[in-house]
Amino acid sequence: MTVATLKAIGFRALRSVVTLLLCVTLVFVVLRTAGDPVDQLLPAETPPSVLEEYRIAWGLDRPLYVQYWSFVSRAVTGDFGKSFASNLPVLDVVLETMPRTLLLGFSALLLASLIGLSLGILGAVRRGTGVDRAAMGVAVLGYSMPIFFLGIVLILLFSLQLRLLPSSGASSLMHLILPTVTLALPLAGRIARFARTATLEVMGRQFIRTAHAKGAGRLRVLLQHAFPNAMVPLLMFYGIEIGLILSGAVVVETIFAWPGLGRLLVSSVSMRDLPLVQGVILTITLVIVLSNLFVDILHALLDPKVSLARTLGGAG
């Protein structure tokens, strides 16, 4: 790698760290100005002296800036403190639930890609025909339907009516099907629309017409020339969608009682478990930042016309 490239990577990494710090700071301040978590976690009849003992034990009696510095200085070493509710290390709780969220997210991303890319490319190849309109109609229906509504409909149909699939839990792969479909269908609709646009844009370029003029078959041109070039802008789209998948997982995991980060976040917020909320949000933010950094690098590697330095933030 050149010096300019290394500087660009360093610049992008620094910007990622700043993003994480801003997110943590915002969450830290908002949570601590929204009320006293001791009042939420302990019974209403708890004596004031006991409440004060808990505030001291949890460090809530100290000034806000002292609490903030204590959290940040420990977080950089992987210590996010202990959960107020369970007294377990936050990192252990997060690492225990994170694999289930990653499993759900990657399953939904894979299913959405299979459906969305197929519909998008089919619509582009058969542009203006009934097949194109049908494919895009399905895509519009997919991303227009709210996740919570889709989840409830799937539960009513496949769990209560047909009794084919479980509606909650995570004890088997069968429990993964409905949450995956619920999270994947809206994403598949967005992928289909974007894939169709990207494919049509590529198919109108000169090198595609040249390939046809040289006698290359339609399928070969599509797979060998059009699709690889259409994937370049799609990669940037995927980088953004990963964040939307994680935000959608909060709703889906709550609906289907899927024990992942999303459901953990909802329960910890309701209990005002500050260390756990901070740990979960920091983890989700870190996944989003790293995925976008990976997509930026991959984008530059796949498209020689885009300099790595420019893709990673304009440095160098």
Describe this structure in words.
- The protein has a domain at 96-270: MetI-like fold, CATH 1.10.3720.
- The protein has helices at 3-32, 37-41, 48-57, 64-75, 90-125, 130-144, 147-161, 174-203, 206-213, 218-255, 261-270, 274-302, 308-311.
- It is mainly alpha-helical and 316 residues long.
- The longest helix is centred in the C-terminal third of the chain and has 38 residues, at 218-255.
- Helices cover 77% and strands 0% of the residues.
- Helix 10 (218-255) packs antiparallel against helix 12 (274-302).
- The chain has 13 helices and no strands.
- The radius of gyration is 24 Å and the shape is flat.
Task: Please tag this protein with its features.
single chain; 316 residues; mainly alpha; 13 helices; 0% strand; flat
Produce a short descriptive summary:
The chain has 316 residues and is an all-alpha fold.
DSSP helix fraction: over 70%
- What sequence of helices (H) and strands (E) makes up the elements? HHHHHHHHHHHHH
Number of helices: 13
Query: What Rg do the Cα atoms give?
Result: 24 Å
Structural class: mainly alpha
What's the CATH first level of the domain at 96-270? Mainly Alpha
Average pLDDT reading = 81
Stretches where pLDDT is under 50 for at least 5 consecutive residues are: 309-313
CATH-wise, what's the superfamily of the domain at 96-270?
MetI-like
Distance between the termini: 13 Å
Name the shape in a single word: flat
- What is the CATH topology assignment of the domain at 96-270? MetI-like fold
Characterize the largest beta sheet: strand count, sense, and whether it forms a barrel.
Answer: none
In terms of DSSP E residues, the strand content is under 5%
The CATH architecture designation of the domain at 96-270 is Orthogonal Bundle
How many individual β-strands? Answer: 0
